[in-house]
Specification:
The structure is a single chain. With about 400 residues, the protein is an all-alpha fold. It folds into two domains: about 200 residues, Hypothetical protein af1432 (Orthogonal Bundle), CATH 1.10.3210; about 190 residues, Hypothetical protein af1432. Helices cover about 60% and strands about 0% of the residues. It is built from 21 helices and no strands. Helix 2 packs across helix 7, helix 2 crosses helix 9 and helix 19 crosses helix 21. The two termini are about 30 Å apart. The structure holds fe (ii) ion (3 copies). One fe (ii) ion binds next to loops.
Amino acid sequence: MNELVSTIAYVLDVMSEGTNLYHSWRVSIFASQFAKAIAPDERKTIFYASLLHDIGYLALPEHITHYLFTLEDPSQNPIVLSHPIIGAELTSQIPNLSMIAKLILNHHEWYNGKGYPLGKQRNEIPLGSQVILLADQIDMLLRNESVRGIKAVEKEISAWSNERASADLIDAAIKVLRDEGLFDEVSDKEKIPVVFNRVRAETGQVDIPSSADAVGIACEVFSQLIDTKHPSMIGHSKRVSVYAMLIALAMNLSHDEITRAKWAALLHDVGKLGIARSLINKPGKLTPQEFDTVKIHAIYTRELLETITDFREISIIASSDHERYDGKGYPMGLKGDKIPIATRIISVADSFDAMTSKRTYRKAMSKEAACEEIERCAGSQFDPRIVKEAIPVLRNLPISLM
Ligand SMILES: [Fe+2]
Ligand SMILES: [Fe+2]
Ligand SMILES: [Fe+2]
């Protein structure tokens, strides 16, 4: 679970831009050091909440650091205004992370009651959220060209005393920035990864027992992250997972095999978090070059999932759904039974959902037409044995599932 949180933070800051903007990392570094000084018992929770604090921003077209001025006046943008709520909703589903959800919900509340989304004030705001707010605002300050050097930063944050944060918290933060030389370290982009790893090790891990339950829920949350970033794909991963499960049941696979198919289906497009929305939503056909870029998502899916121990087993299943039965697929050109059986099922389910969903450049196909197309590709794109079992299931799907 600790790896999961770190991976999501990586997706937020790196994959969406192709270059690391270090927002989540730098906020976590500051927050962890401030927490060490004023809320040592909550340090771990605060650190992990900081890593995910802006997860709700996935709904914005660009990385959150591009909204410097909107942040001062969030009423300009409904997503900015609601990102703490979206973030709390996403994280609250993971067992034992509900405390993190609460800190995320309140991370833009100001001590004087002028923050958002709920306009809480003073002690109504959890201390951890106040710490994250201050860390976040300092990170934004450092991105502002006109504020240079520790003295200038001190002057700015002193002015927030009892406005954005309590005077006590601000005093403690200034002390930390001065004493530990932290300010110099995090002002140098090259040094941020080193400092981040040191602070993470020092902070320690949150105790989250990893159970089958938690892994399943984490898969669901990942599929919702894709929906949040790419609204044109809403519900796609979930539907593919349901179709894959129905096909696996029809084939009398074991419980473990069915579970793997379901989970891997939820994750099969995770790599699309790293693909620009303009490409995923492009009205009209992609150019060959654009198509090559979109294809990279299969590799991203594999790389992302491999960093999480609990997902390692399904990473290959989830990232191979563009392989073809005849070996002419991507990314590896696997052929026939070399492709895991759960993947061969997901490929059919994925194509069926893609065809029966509306696209910007075409209408949705009927179930019957999609089934005919799948039958036509049996033996080339798809495993013919799976097509034989899948067609009766897909042809009779109730509309409410689609
Ligand atoms: Fe935020
Ligand atoms: Fe932030
Ligand atoms: Fe897909």
